[in-house]
Amino acid sequence: MSKELNRLSFLHEVLYITSETEMLTVCERILINQERGYLLSKGSYNELRPYEIPLHLEEKIENIMDSIKEKEVESEIIE
User: Fold this and answer.
1) Predicted pLDDT of residue 1
2) Whole-prediction pTM value?
């Protein structure tokens, strides 16, 4: 279950960080929320059908998170 919680946390963080930007399209945000919905329903009585975001979107959000982490490291070095 912790794998699902980590994934939920990661997807939430991506949505939060990109909320006031144009890094993700509306459709991409919907796809991310579809996976979140599935993960939240997992194990419940009305579990949704399995859903994972497409590979190209997975790669895009990994790149976004990597660039954010790089900027955080750079800002720590400057301070």
Assistant:
1) 59
2) 0.82
**The predicted structure's pLDDT at residue 68:** 83
Q: Cα-Cα-Cα-Cα dihedral of 64, 17, 53, 60, to 10°?
A: -10
d(CA 44, CA 41): 6
Divide the 79 residues of the chain into consecutive groups of 10 and give the mean pLDDT of each group. Answer: 86 92 94 94 85 94 88 65
C-beta separation of 23 from 64 below 8 A? yes
DSSP at 20: T
Long-range contacts of 35-44 (CB under 8 A, 24+ apart): 35/7, 35/11, 36/8, 36/11, 36/12, 39/4, 39/7, 39/8, 39/11, 40/8, 42/4, 43/1
Cβ atoms of 4 and 42 within 8 Å: the answer is yes
